[in-house]
Amino acid sequence: MRIDIITIFPKMFAPVLGESIIKRAQKKGIIKIAVHNLRDYSLDKHKKVDDRPFGGGPGMVMNPQPFFAAVKDIQGKAKAKVILLSPQGRLLTQKTCRNLAREKRLILLCGHYEGIDERVKKIVDAEVSIGDYVLTGGELAAMVLVDGVVRLVPGVLGHQDSIKSETFEENLLEYPHYTRPAIFKGMKVPQILLSGDHEKIAVWRKEQAIKITKIKRPDLSRLGSRAKISC
After folding, report:
1. Are 94 and 168 in contact (CB under 8 A)?
2. What stretches of the chain show up as alpha helix (H) in DSSP?
3. Which member of 26, 74, 106, 183 has the lowest number of beta carbons within 10 Å of its beta carbon?
4. 10 Å Cβ neighbour count for 163?
């Protein structure tokens, strides 16, 4: 998979893209990520990418020209799915991440200032939001999307089967985890996890996932409760 990110703050991405799973995925050659400076595509002699909004109002609006030029240049002849990070977009979910992980190429557009010229959306395939709140720009949202998508690409995680039991899979939150020591400050690990009976452990974990979902996310519990206990 190749991911291209278009932004006016390319330096923001280095700490995230150069660490942990995303770094390892790039080293393995499974993922290729490139960050592009939108200003490089501006025709303005001062490399400006924004201007005052028509009709008046506060803030500055990002020009369409640099976005069109950047997408055309970066995409080339190989079709890519273009995503605009926007608070007006559809909420990023685990299902969305799974679908995007199947794409061969993604181009992420990061807005800033008061917003972007509406005409940019003519070259956008989807608008995605990470929550019902407004950020200074799309950069942090792009980082979240990249992290959520990359880890689902086959071969990125060392134990791909672990994804199957994660939070939001099967509309359930994840079951509780424990590690050594077996007793810590008087708190004991559930005996079932020490039994070595993997079938019973699997059943316990599914029961716990359903219970936790009903308590913490009742909006998911209706669907999650339909999941069979047997594993």
Report:
1. yes
2. 14-17, 20-28, 64-75, 94-100, 139-150, 198-216, 218-224
3. 183
4. 15
